[in-house]
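Hi Q.,

Before the meeting this afternoon, I wanted you to have the magnesium ion prediction in hand. No need to reply - just skim if you have a minute. The sequence and ligand are here:
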Amino acid sequence: MLRLGDLTIRYGTSVAVDSVDLQVATGEVVALLGPSGSGKTTLLRAIAGLERPSSGTIMWRDADMSAVPVHRRPFGMMFQDYALFPHLSVARNVAFGLEVTGADDVGEHVAESLRLVGLDGLEDRPITELSGGEQQRVAFARTLATRPELIMLDEPLGALDRELRTRLLGEMSDVFRRLGQTVIYVTHDQEEAFAVADTVAVLEDGRLIQSGSPDALWTAPKTEFVARFLGFPVVDITADGAHAETPWGALPCTLPTGRHRAALLPDAIAIGDDLAGTVVARSFVGGRWRATAQPQSGTALEVMVRNRPEIGSDIGISIDPDGWASVGQSRDDDTTEEVQA
Ligand code: ADP
Ligand code: MG
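Predicted structure with the ligand bound:
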């Protein structure tokens, strides 16, 4: 188990990592999700021992890591740019970390790692003769080869096109499960985070804003930043006790009097009570759908839903007292779709 306690890393007067508390259980895959500049790489480098924390603790299996040098920490890191040696072969690249630590059976470990990533047979190939996807696999194999207790991957698919990313993400995920590997997976891509992780931890400006299962984040993002980052539309609502003024007109609701921001969260359980709109357009945005629904009066609404919305079906919105709005698809339409499928 990795335990970060109140970890802070400053560069001069700016704070790159701000009082982060985070736990990673053995065998758990945690995705560290945040936009560029949110402190993801700095946090990984501190865990690896490449960056000295300004304050706070890094504990591994209840042992304080602060005095443990980089090469003695039982961690493996895959860098964003892979950091491969172009003049060395595939096998020599994978062997590199093992040779540094003076491991036995280097050849065996190399062969096993290359098998795990599906590169057996390419041992003698120079790095310069590999595709981007193959280079990614070599970097991954090199990280696996020393059998680190914790693997940290810094945007491991960042440089690749979408199709390849999807395939390699599945392959890496399989390897993690097969090895029962403890992983911190850094990404700025929420779909990638949701696909790979048991727990998603969201960073904003160096602070850990929310950490939870993909489903927990999806159903209850804690802040407007998290909601927006996950792709949910956020709207202004003014409530006066009985009604709420929304972009689609006044709705009955029980929000406290005052101004609110509400994220439109897909619910897909039942159609909302407060407002319904008819679906006039839809587009698939990877893992879910964006629908345009036209209420009887007022502006069309843009919402995200889990299931493919039928043109002409209804989408409902209800606004919860906690300030979240939930978006529901009519259940009848879903049933019809299943029957037709
Ligand atoms: P991310 O990986 O999420 O894109 P980083 O951890 O690279 O974010 O950076 C977090 C913040 O720390 C940024 O504001 C960045 O400019 C700053 N930073 C990172 N490395 C250094 C450094 N060596 N010196 C000064 N500032 C740095
Ligand atoms: Mg980074």
